[in-house]
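Purpose: get a first structural picture of the assembly so the mutagenesis plan has something to point at.
Setup: two entries, given in the order below. No constraints added.
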Amino acid sequence: MKSRFTRLAGVVVVLALVLAACGGDDAEETTTMAGEVDETTTTAAPGETTTAATGGDVDPNTGLPMIDPLDVTGDIVTAGSSTVFPLSEAVTALFEDEGYGGQITIDSIGSGAGFERFCEAGESDISNASRPIEQEEIDLCAGIDRTVMEFRVGTDALAVVVSSGNYFVESLTLAELAIAFSTAETWADVNPDFPAHPIAVFSPGTDSGTFDSFVEEVFEEDPEPLLAGDPQLSEDDNVLVQGVSGDGCTEGDLATACGIAYFGFAYYTENADVIHPVAIEGVVPSEDTVNDNSYPLSRPLFIYSAEEILAEKPQVADFIAFYLNRVGEVIGDVGYFVAPADAIQVGADAWLAAVGS
Amino acid sequence: MTSKTVSVEAGDWYKKRRRPGEFVVRAFLLISGALSIATTIGIVVVLAREALLFFMDPEVTLSEFVTGTNWQPTIQQFGIFPLVLATLIVTGIALVVAIPLGLASAIYLSEYARPRVRAVIKPILEVLAGIPTVVYGYFALTFMTPLLRSVFGIATVEIFNTASAGIVIGILIIPLVSSLAEDALYAVPRSFKEAAYGLGATRFEVATRIVFPAALSGVTAAIVIAASRAIGETMVVALASGATPRNFTWGEDPLFGYILNPFVAGETMTGHIVRISGGDLSYNSIDYTSIFAIGLTLFLITLGLNVLSRRFVERFRETYE
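Result (structure tokens, whole complex):
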């Protein structure tokens, strides 16, 4: 998922933020640049919409203290899942908009590599992940004196899509999905009721978390059947969208190929005009079906940190509290689903127990 | 200034004189030259070392690497042939486009165009070389592929295919061919042409029978450089020619319908490297070291091409007074 385009886009976003900061009034610029908070900027900062609560006020939903980013100093290093990346980016943008003056780095390197950096190298403060941490990784973390804390921040659904020219696929079972993404030569191999158009398969690349979770859900963690079918693989989801939407699928012409692809739900919503979602086991992906767990291809999104880090670096604790309080405001725009309130609450309670306020 | 100094000291000019400035310049030039050689050596060493790691992996055998027809390192398939084949198909198509067009425009510019026309057209042609290749990539994907589809049918031409990438790379290297070939043609001594005209030759005869053969070695060099450029071109194939190796089985997959079909998707060596390294590779995975094995292969191919062309040029070079 992370491609040079995303990286470039990241640079552009950063530049845009810097420019935006420079374009604002001088007081604001000082805040962003110097990374320190002084009294004048606090009073001069225009358009502040926070509750401006620094002490005592508590978020009614999570029970966590309200964080005023103006009071937060120090840098934060995060790394991990490319799926969580846009969400963390959105929360960070909010955090910075409201006055945080330090540096947050978000490296999009994949969940596994993120845990490697967090638990082996110990270089990151927060690890983003699109799957729960494994016992092995928890043990590694314990080895460098990090007691892992898990915070659920949202839910992603994998969307299986066909082109809008595809006139016959509405719903697939998980078994049909496995055939379509491995041995099928034509759609008739997937289901005898389908016309025998050649099937063109598009999949995110083998290093993405999306690939891992698809293989886990559909192929029981064995990537071989999927790869042996020679799908078009790309880390760039736009390539997949272009591939599947341009398949040329035409009713009445059995020589035209009809494509199928899967990727994060966000990419489907962005390209809904050229591609068509497929219901899995009869269930269409939507907020309701994801939250009641009836849609089979959904997965939780997490951020991880450690008790020791929260104690040592108050800015990390503040950022996580801010994240849990405010993630609901941005998650819809990013294209994911709000996590169930009780799942978020588990993280919030762990935070309160660790920080103790 | 200098002449004055010389004349003053003319009497003892043969005595050794220290010129610190001269020494500094000389050292600087030497270091600059050595730096680029050192860089090349460094690259080769890194390539070879990481590629060696790949070949030392117990899963990998050299014979599979050379003869295998499936490349998918994640599931232990290590036959590089599909990647090489796609590179050759794309390069071949590019050369089929670029050689006639490039040479024709070179001949026009050097033999037919009036100096004023030449002064305008040549820079315009060279502007083509200044377009970023990523733009060419999207040109292939959003213009050339639909064009091919409207000509050959949407069922024949896949959305990602080697033909559209090849044609666009051909367009991309036209300025390279025409510019270098034109220089070679232009360097043919005027007396040759005048002699031919004097014997009653037409312009076309002069261009094709006199000038072109005389400039053959230079023209070949131009084509080889263009071919190396086409082999190494990355962005266009990454965007337009497909994102998976065209894996196949001899005897099972049709030779012309699939294996050599230009309208089917096929990932080239460069395209594969850029796609794999765009992901989140961990350093000690076989996918990571496989990149260097591909890079080494690519390096050997272009090196071979350059050595061949050098021999060719030396053999056919004509020197004129």
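Residues 157-298 of chain A form a domain with the D-Maltodextrin-Binding Protein; domain 2 fold (CATH 3.40.190.10).
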